[in-house]
Structures are given as C-alpha cells and as structure tokens.
Amino acid sequence: MRVALPSKGRLRDPAFKLLEDAGLGPEQPGERALAFPCRNAPVEVLLVRAADIPEYVQDGVVDCGITGIDLVRERGADISEVLLLGFGSCRLDAAVPDASLALSLEDLAGMTVASTYPRLTRELLPVDVDLVDVTGSVEIAPRLGLADAIVDLVSSGETLRTNGLRSLGTLLESEAALVSRDVEVTAPFAAMLRAVVQARSHRYLMLNAPETSLPAIRALVEPRVPSVLPLADAGMVAVHVLVPSADVWRLLPALEEVGGSSILIVPVERMVA
Ligand code: AMP
C-alpha cells in the first residue's frame, strides 16, 4: 500500500502525528527521506505537495493520500473522500474590502474576483464574475487594484481582518481527509486511522455514585450505556462510560449534581466501532 502525505505546509505535521498515533510512524525514527516504509504494517509513505495528492491518487501513483477537501474539489479529482480527519479545518470564503458596497455573495455579480481556486469560485459563486487567476497572496489583490473581491481559505479570519477585508459568505467548508481511488483496497488502512480519529473525539469517564443515582446518570450519558461495577461500600457503584469530548464540561457539573464523585476523565488511544 502506498500512501501520499503532504511534504510541507500546515497539513504536514498533523498528518504525521495521525500516522504516529495509529502506530504507523516511519520504520526509522526521524526519517527525512521523501519515501519511507512504516512500522507495523506494509505501508510505504510518499511525501508530495498537498495540492498534487488528489492527482496522484486519481492516477494510481499511490493508493490513497491525506490532503485538504478544498484541494480535491478544486482539482475535480474522481476519488473517494473516505474519512474526515479532524484537522486542517477552514472555509473557502468570498471577501471584499471593508469599504466595498457589496453585502452578499449575489452583490458580486459582474465584479472581478481574484482566487487561487478558479474552478470552485466559478462553480460555487451564485453569480457570474470576472475571474483573475492568481498563484498566491490573494488577499492583497484588491489593494493592488487587481480585483474587487477575493475567494480564499480562511480559518480564524485574522488574515482577512489585517488586510482590511470582510467576508461575504462561505462557498465550501474544508478539512483534511483520507482520499482513495479504491475504497476496498484502502479499507484496512482507513480502519487504522479511523480508530485514532474517533478516539480523539471521545473521553473515558469514570466516577463513583450511590446506586440510587444510576437512572439519573444513565439519562445524562444517553445514548451510551455505561458499565456499572459494585464498590466495596454497600450501595455504591463505579460507573464507566465513553462520552464525546465536547460534552465533558457540560456533563461534569450535572454528574456531580446527581451524586457522582471521584470523577476521572481519561483520553482514549484507539476506538473501534
Ligand atoms: P499549505 O500546504 O500550508 O498551503 O496547506 C494548504 C491546505 O491547508 C489547504 O488546502 C487547506 O486544506 C488547509 N488549511 C487549513 N486552514 C487553512 C488556512 N487558514 N489557510 C490555508 N490553508 C488552510
């Protein structure tokens, strides 16, 4: 199995970390070559530009790869987005200078729009525009008089703000994904990554409580069914349950309220089904 990973840029480090956490790091720790075998599975990693990965996967140079959904869609690659990976989140937004009269995406009709995403701009904007296809530093195009508006990737919105731009709306939500040409062939590898991606978004919760609190606790952690173990103290039980990480802060005070004590929150390494 050959897998393409981004050789640089903002997706590189989280992609490597995911591989490491799945137990598939480089066979030689600290490996810096452009291709290397992985530990624990017959997987060979090829390091290439994130933007080239959709094409490499489509052409069968590699079996699968990790790259941004935005790059896959811009290439129009005929490949499957097998698994969202939970990092590299961003939006493809249309934006205008603060002083512009445009207030919505529709207001861009007939304007010039600069982007490194010409295909998605044309496809996803609801109106016809004059496209200026640029290769970088899109956010300065309006100031240079090159365009009335831009379509570019945004995560925090900080770059837009520092360049005196405001968003008119989102054309596409993106994040890093495992992409594949043949889902069957890559299924075992996808399963290894899925076990880590799922585990990262959950926590294992352990607490003690009076047995009489069990109905209230079950109602709080639904639809998960907790494990219940008797404690040495009569009438007391230990409750163990897997919960979404995002729910932990809401759950803690509620569990205390219904009698939970000695509450432990533990990270999960892998999670299968
Ligand atoms: P890079 O190689 O650093 O240019 O990474 C590009 C990819 O990172 C993009 O295609 C997106 O999938 C992802 N990404 C996530 N957040 C951002 C952002 N704020 N700006 C650019 N790319 C981003």
Strand content range: 25-35%
Task: Give me the side-by-side strand order of the main sheet.
Answer: 2-3-1-4-11-5
The counted number of beta strands is 15
Q: Write down the overall geometry.
A: flat
Bound molecules: adenosine monophosphate
Model description:
This protein has 273 residues and is α/β, with parallel strands linked by helices. The chain is 26% helix and 33% strand. It has helices at residues 12-21, 53-59, 69-75, 118-124, 158-162, 183-200, 214-221, 248-257; strands at residues 2-6, 35-37, 44-48, 64-68, 80-84, 90-97, 112-115, 130-133, 149-154, 165-174, 176-180, 202-210, 227-230, 236-244, 261-267. The strands form three sheets. A six-stranded mixed sheet has the order 2-3-1-4-11-5, with helices on both faces. The radius of gyration is 24 Å and the shape is flat. The mean pLDDT is 96. Bound molecules: adenosine monophosphate.
Topology, please?
Layout: E1 2-6, H1 12-21, E2 35-37, E3 44-48, H2 53-59, E4 64-68, H3 69-75, E5 80-84, E6 90-97, E7 112-115, H4 118-124, E8 130-133, E9 149-154, H5 158-162, E10 165-174, E11 176-180, H6 183-200, E12 202-210, H7 214-221, E13 227-230, E14 236-244, H8 248-257, E15 261-267
Parallel strand pairs: 1-3, 1-4, 7-8, 7-9
Antiparallel strand pairs: 2-3, 4-11, 5-11, 6-9, 6-10, 12-14, 12-15, 13-14
Bound molecules: adenosine monophosphate.
Adenosine monophosphate (AMP) is lined by residues 9-11, 50, 68, 70-71, 88, 90, 153-155, 174.
Overview in brief:
This protein has 273 residues and is an alpha/beta fold. It contains 8 helices and 15 strands.
